């Protein structure tokens, strides 16, 4: 079975700058590709994604490009830095634009995110990863994604301000092992849902 | 395929009092039982569940009784009222006691919550359900449960203080339809994972 | 004593569109102006505020304009809609840009937000206000703002999707009374801190 | 001016066990006592505090004892460990019992928590402090407490599981300095509000 994965990197940084979040997401990418999952990384700041809650806000909106990649992917890896203990403004922008997917139905009559799985990758200087996972997971579950158990990893190093992920090797091993498990459960649950998907009649609204 | 579901009702109320949370969870129970899923409701306040983060805190601890029911169930419906916008103290107590399950391994070498699914039911007077879902879902995902897309329902009626769920019929229809979908996706994903479970080698730690 | 208040409206909408959030914030504005507090409303989407965590990201960044208004104000009213149960991406963008204020010191040697107060206004279709208050209040407290008791109001109307604030009059009275109290406590605590400010020696870092 | 401070330690541990949370709260206690603030620490698990949202749940309920201490205190230091990234079940229990204070009016006709200040102390093994602060601060603000800027400190040491606060000295210095600032701003704002309290007419409900 061929699976596709999309990594959305919600860093605040422009393409020219190194992203700690992308570096940690790379652990999952390597695990996925090692199991023949086609993987693509999109840095959201490379695109013009204006505020809004529809799929196409017009006037040069590049969200439709990302939206179509979402619909081609079985697995979503939602990667974000932590600012003020929260998901980044780019992450929230992405969730707002994905909000429209709640009422977009696929050929099976189900919201388009059904039968897709999502995981979360979080980096930060000091603290906040569990909360960021809670916010991203809840948002994606609202939209219809299934979030498998332990389908996340994070890195930070509190208390207080300190080095970023790429500035040190402290804690990397735990974050990598946890990320490899995340990739493996994402693949496993994506496969289960491909073989035995949620049926059309599940949706009552 | 025979599935078992456990509803944990985390109301603050003693058994003698009517629980709004149990009333809304009843929507899911009826849907599950209509599809031959064996269902049991446990009101946590009926048991002595002292503070702690192990599976048996000794001295009359009745958590082991609930813990064994969790291990017999494919589907967990985690139902809680909202207080101050948060899951109840009973809900958090349950999550703390379930924390030990992170390091309890099943015969497949995986954390015992793997290949089980969980959904969330929330009631409250005014506001807070999305946050309660975020907290409960993140906690259960940490522990290893898979949370299917849209596997939750809620009822509240803001802004400000107002009637409880059983005091009115306003909004009941939306909460019921949403709850029926939640029950259906829980059954569907539980079945998918029974037929094609997350394999032992997924877990890297 | 003359006080100044700044309302930051973090709606996703462009200036040409009516903002529910601004309408509810208007309750506080009227109460503040009725007590001779100079008040200004800034709709953040009217300005180019790129991603970043410094006070000036260069290249047409208009955040410095808003930043200077923050430094002239004793009272901040942080107003945001609710999307996916979270503060808007514009609200998080504002918090990220305000993050730099943690290390900007005033003439008293204290972080510039010390001795300023902040309140929160939240609108939404269905649910999420308490959580939005928690996120905005924690972010502003991190930055150094004092948040007085009950210095917030909100409007939403769950469960499920429904009308926006300006589409109905349901619940408006509660939101207005609560907002008037919010304005009054903001003025009172702002005055207390003007008369007896947190002294320079409080800050130990 | 004589000020009184109450520290509520919401550890899960019984009195016989050493509390990391109490150890970190001790930093604030020493700072407060060094400025002639009378300070008392209450470990909530030493008392029988049953579930409920009234001030006296009857039948051996010992919450009224803690409630009366709250009413005698100008400053509340709310100290909690982190479990699953959340405030402890004891912390949520305390907030639920304090919920009744929203409708308890003082001799000035204001909710009893008005003109009192609160701060937050958080410990944990790995991550979650910002979120815990957000939950506790929002709850206490709902109830009427004023939360001064930066009136919190925390200690944890992610990523992943690791030593507890008292098992190491890593990061203690940052947590201590931050805690000393927290104590100082709590004292300063408590004094400002004693000298110029929020007036009766602020409350509109």
Would you kindly provide a written description of the structure presented here, covering whatever features stand out?
4 copies of one chain form a homotetramer. Chain A is built from 5 helices and 6 strands, in the order βαβαββαβαβα. By secondary structure, the first copy, chain A, is an alpha/beta fold. Chain A has a single domain, classed as 3-Layer(aba) Sandwich (Rossmann fold), CATH 3.40.50. In chain A, strands 1, 2, 3, 4, 5 and 6 form a 6-stranded mixed β-sheet that branches. The longest helix of chain A is centred in the last third of the chain and has 24 residues. Chain A starts with a strand and ends in a 10-residue tail after the last helix. Chains A and B meet through helix 4 and helix 5 of A and helix 4 and helix 5 of B.
CATH topology of chain A: Rossmann fold
Characterize the quaternary organization of these chains. homotetramer
CATH superfamily name of chain A? Flavodoxin domain
The end-to-end distance of chain A, rounded to whole angstroms, is 32 Å
Count of discrete alpha- or pi-helical segments spanning 4 or more residues of chain A: 5
Question: What are the secondary-structure elements of chain A, in order, as H or E?
Answer: EHEHEEHEHEH
Classified by CATH, the class of chain A is Alpha Beta
List unreliable stretches of 5+ residues of chain A.
none
Shape, per Cα inertia axes of chain A: globular
Q: What percent strand of chain A?
A: 15-25%
């Amino acid at each position: 079975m061929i699976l596709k994965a999309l990594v959305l990197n919600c860093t605040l940084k422009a393409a020219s700058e190194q992203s700690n979040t992308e570096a940690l997401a790379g652990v999952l990418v390597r695990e996925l590709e090692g199991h023949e999952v086609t993987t693509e990384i999109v840095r959201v700041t490379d695109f013009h994604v204006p505020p809004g809650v529809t799929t196409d806000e017009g006037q040069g909106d590049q969200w439709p490009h990302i939206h179509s990649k979402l619909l081609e992917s079985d697995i979503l890896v939602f990667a974000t830095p932590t600012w003020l203990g929260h998901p980044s403004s780019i992450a929230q922008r992405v969730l707002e634009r994905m909000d429209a997917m709640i009422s977009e139905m696929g050929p099976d009559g189900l919201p388009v995110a059904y039968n897709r799985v999502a995981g979360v990758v979080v980096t930060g200087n000091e603290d906040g990863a569990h909360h960021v996972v809670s916010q991203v997971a809840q948002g994606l579950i609202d939209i219809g994604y299934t979030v498998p158990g332990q389908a996340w990893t994070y890195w930070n190093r509190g208390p207080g301000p300190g080095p970023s992920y790429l500035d040190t090797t402290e804690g990397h091993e735990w974050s990598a092992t946890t990320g490899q498990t995340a990739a493996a459960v994402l693949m496993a649950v994506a496969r289960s849902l491909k073989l035995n998907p949620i049926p059309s009649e599940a949706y009552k609204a």
